[in-house]
């Protein structure tokens, strides 16, 4: 029993240390993590001295660390949700779902579209996490070595997205011209796609949307967010943002294009990219 207690205590200490080493990826979790780690360390020491004691106040400390992490990741969830939602409205993948839903079962098109976007989110988050883990390898020289490269790259990418989106929106002519172009591209993408049963429609929709989404702005934004924030919060926020987009695509169809302002969506989306970039760069500078 004493050996089992020591094993659990060491495991708790290791988990807490790993949490602290990644604490800079959240808004302000350092103080919560440090307090929890101090409590856990004290409990481990008490267990080594009194191996027969079955009181483990480390558990409340671990709960405190988990609660602090959850609360600190909520801004990452909201940021991911808003960026994805405003990036995907009127996008090529959106109109692929719209056009397919006009000729196929809406349920099968929804499952294929949402499944493809969710899978792409997982792939993008994994790439972002790999970029974060490579932070030590990509260290800057000299006095810049303390700056987090992953945060700088992510912030720079988001900043570029924001500025380019605002410029494109400013240069747009009156009317939803860009949405019309995206719809034409989607029409070309689904040419040759025939009918089929439910399973075949889901599979063909999945393949079309996944291929169209590869290299898209929303994918690169997800990679950038996952590199500098909580991957779980980014994945959850992105998937939550894709859900209403997919529902709108298969239910409202082309009517949405006539009822929304392309410029308003562009300005909101570009502003969100800029805000996310500034928050990411500020977080990296504080580290």
Strand element count: 0
Based on the structure, what is the oligomeric state of the protein chains? single chain
> What general outline do the C-alpha atoms trace?
globular
Helix/sheet category = mainly alpha
- Evaluate the radius of gyration: 23 Å
Q: Strand-and-helix sequence, N→C?
A: HHHHHHHHHHHH
The description of the largest β-sheet is: none
User: What number of structural domains do the residues give?
Assistant: 2
Distance between the termini: 41 Å
Percent helix, as a range, is over 70%
Query: How much strand content do the residues show?
Result: under 5%
Spans of at least 5 consecutive residues whose pLDDT stays below 50 are 16-38, 40-59, 61-71
- Chain-averaged pLDDT: 74
Tally of DSSP helical segments: 12
